[in-house]
Amino acid sequence: MKIKYYMQKKRFSTWQVAVLIAFALIGVSVMAYAAVYLPYQFNPGGTARSSEVNANFKALGDVMPQITQGDGITNSPFAYSPGALTRGQITVTAPGRGVITLFASGSVGFYSHTEGTLSWLHLAFSKTATSFGTVGITEFRLPASLPSFSMGPPAGNGCMVLPLSMVGTYGVPSAGTYTYYLNAWLEEAGPTAIVSGNLWALYTPS
Fold this sequence. Notes:
2 helices; Jelly Rolls; 5-stranded antiparallel sheet; about 210 residues; about 45% strand; alpha+beta; 4-stranded antiparallel sheet; elongated
């Protein structure tokens, strides 16, 4: 028996996400250094105070992109949830106004499915743990025509594992600490889990 899987988003592997982040860092770094204003200028043979040198370094640091890695994504199975269910979170400290790009990767495992029933999982980034969110929405659907399967007794016949790759962006108006959540909404499906999941955030100044 052949089982097909259905997914609405294109998958990016972990190394592809890393390459995308690296190129983003290079591009933003070039633009940032070209536009940065240094509060102190030094002339050959002159004297530079440590406070002035540190202020220049801080000015450079404030316009550089920053990468933050989250604590991971909860991999315990979850069942039908009529509302938002938080599976992971990440906190980013922004030195100023800018854009925070969130990345999530891993795998989604459907541990059971019943023929005649649509299995449907929604994932999204949100600013709160209690609201589902509208950023980076990614959906996984197993059609009702798909034959039944289950990992559990009495006769387990497997599970469905699908690749997960999500990207979402938020603008931040000023310096501060910002927390974001990866929320799930599971409709008409058996136990499901996010396996080997990771969260990253890339801050870029604007």
